[in-house]
Amino acid sequence: MKPVGVLRFLGTNCDLDVFGALESLEASPQWLWYEDQFNPADYSGFVLPGGFSYGDYLRSGALAAKAPVMKSLEEANSKGQPILGICNGFQILCEAQMLPGALIKNKGLKFIDRFVDLKSVTQSAWGFDQKIHIPIAHGDGCYFATDDVVKSLFDNDQVWLTYEDNPNGSVKDIAGLLNKNKNVAALMPHPERAMNSWMGSRDGLVLLNQFLELR
Amino acid sequence: MSLVKVTLKVMPKPEVLDSAGRAVAEVLKKNKFNLQSCRVGKSIELELEDSPNLKKDILKMAEFVLYNPLVEQIEILNEGELS
Fold this sequence. Notes:
The complex is a heterodimer of chains A (215) and B (83). Chain A has 215 residues and is an alpha/beta fold. Chain A is 22% helix and 25% strand. In chain A, the strands form 2 sheets. Chain A has a 9-stranded mixed sheet with strand order 2-1-3-4-11-10-9-6-7, sandwiched between helices. In chain A, strands 5-8 form a two-stranded antiparallel sheet. Chain B has helices at residues 19-30, 54-66; strands spanning 3-12, 42-49, 72-76. Chain B is an alpha+beta fold and 83 residues long.
């Protein structure tokens, strides 16, 4: 199996955790630097880790979405290769218009760092039966989209995950999304922070394995 | 008393490193846009009752919390419309 590309922007800070998690799942991760372009055919999938790329200037993810590496990622997207965005990665994918909507300031205005319970909504291959328990850590995690976009998300089976107890005001409790084509998935919670029982949960494995199985 | 809308522009002082402006400028240049520089500030809209001391009151608010004169400068954008 070809390696999984892990994108690094200026200010990405969950990169090593994601890299380690992928290594532990024998997914042979490989770094992709924000200034570089790559040949999508050399990789089996891509992960955009969390962090605060470009200091969240203008809007979270706005500047990273215009980095050179994203041109190649768009090519990979058009070829239908699996792409997973985590936290800031979700924000970047929205700003790059690979996913609809935007992530704005949490409703309570506070940065929230705690475990949440999630369930999967989609009937696609990204779906699963069990409830999962993994951490969030974000200030701009409130998913926003216009009513007609939200309706189309449900009509097109694009809602991947919802919060059991909405922490941030996201419309329809949305915690994770898919694109129409179902090759791009992103979520605000951090699966790479729930890989071992000593981390408080191993449920992140469910999500990362789901991604890896789609390669 | 009628309500007036006041728009304030807060910008980093020219001599202060504007990290947001610099990051935005770099991204624009790397995407082949032509520009010399970019500064990022913020605009603040206040809605308040008109009064003879309006401008003075606004500047008081500005000095109280809206900007830091050490590193920022402020401008009332619609000053001409105010009494």
